[in-house]
Design brief:
heterodimer, A: about 190 residues, alpha/beta, about 30% helix, globular, B: about 160 residues, alpha+beta
Chain lengths: ~190, ~160
């Protein structure tokens, strides 16, 4: 459930982009920041290493405007992908309303994808989330590269929840907004279900 | 373990909170106070004049505070309940109010750390019960209804139109 502030008439939803290292989570957020109406977005905050690997998280607030008298915002976060940053990932997942799992389609990244996918569900279960209340979208990224798995194979491998799956190339923006739109609509629908 | 419930702030709670924060700011001599959620979202602020980018501040303060809790775990400490950063001109103090709410305070040389800590601890004792009030849930179900979902859905289409 999001943070609902009746006095300020605000609703904030938290959406977390999850996935293995270098799968394209930050690229998604950077593309959104570059393309979305500047009036609708806040500052992009990135805590990264010198090699531009996400150390802690990226953060981008997006404003949907006023809906039925309530200012509605989506707070987009990424997690650090490398396996040794699990403590940071758990921190970012606190209070999450929906996740985008960004999968790297390259055949060589199979193990990392599976490890990250299992790690996501482990962390959610550990923090006691009711998984049926959370939005979830899978993005198959890097579809423009060669030596990639078929989309059907990746669905079989990673989509045990029957969630929406979107093919993407985050670097050129293909599928980035389709993913974001889908997950935003999901969190709204989930909140409406109470 | 059931999922932690969402945080819903009612008008009554906000009036009480704003009153407490304003008083805390005055008696402690601090410049800016924000109440934020542990998930990194701002709830309300009290400031002398102007204030920092509250959205960014909330996400970073919550992240830093969460990291100190992990540090506590590594050190086999039950919990660290406050975080303090000392600067040249200003200082930042972050303290836990409830398991879902943090208090973020900035102050300069015009006051003392001890004074800020003393009044902050007192304010937290007054703030805690405010978040036990539960009269807002019905209001949430009335406001966040099918109508809201429908309108939000349309707003999402508008915001991301022509972005593909």
């Amino acid at each position: 459930m999001p943070l609902i502030n009746f006095a300020a008439r605000e609703i904030n939803y938290k959406i977390v982009y999850y996935g293995c290292g270098l799968c394209g989570k930050t690229t998604n957020i950077q593309y959104i920041h570059k393309k979305v109406n500047p009036d609708a977005r806040g500052k992009l905050v990135s805590i990264a290493t010198e090699e531009e690997r996400t150390l802690y998280f990226d953060f981008l607030p997006l404003s949907l405007g006023t809906v039925k008298g309530m200012k509605t915002r989506f707070h987009l976060y990424t997690v650090p992908g490398q396996s040794y940053y699990n403590a940071s990932r758990r921190l970012v997942l606190q209070g999450v309303d929906a996740m985008v799992f960004v999968a790297d389609s390259q055949i060589t990244r199979l193990d990392e994808n599976v490890e990250s996918y299992l790690n996501l569900w482990d962390n959610l279960l550990d923090q006691g989330d009711d998984l049926t209340k959370l939005g979830f979208v899978i993005q198959l990224n890097k579809r423009d590269l060669s030596d990639i798995f078929s989309a059907d194979d990746m669905r079989d491998l990673l989509n045990h929840t029957g969630s929406p799956v979107i093919e993407a190339c985050a670097l050129s923006g293909i599928g980035v907004f389709e993913t974001l739109k889908t997950v935003c609509k999901q969190v709204i629908a989930k909140t409406g279900q109470g | 373990m059931p999922r932690r419930r969402g945080l819903v702030i009612s008008n009554r709670q906000m009036r009480l909170v704003d009153d407490i924060l304003d008083k805390l700011r005055q008696v402690s001599g601090s410049r800016f106070i924000a109440l934020v959620s542990t998930s990194g979202q701002p709830i309300t602020t009290s400031a002398v004049e102007g204030h920092p980018d509250t959205l960014t501040l909330a996400s970073l303060a919550a992240g830093s505070f969460a990291a100190t809790q992990q540090l506590a775990e590594v050190l086999n400490e039950r919990e660290f309940t406050l975080l303090f950063h000392e600067g040249r001109e200003s200082n930042l103090h972050v303290a836990q109010v409830t398991d879902q709410v943090l208090l973020v305070i900035t102050f300069g040389r015009e006051t003392q750390v001890g004074k800020v800590r003393l009044y902050t601890n007192r304010a937290i004792e007054v703030l805690k019960p405010v978040f036990d009030l539960t009269d807002e849930d019905d209001q949430a179900s009335v406001m966040i209804d099918d109508d809201y979902s429908l309108l939000a859905d349309e707003a999402i289409d508008d915001l991301f139109a022509d972005m593909e």
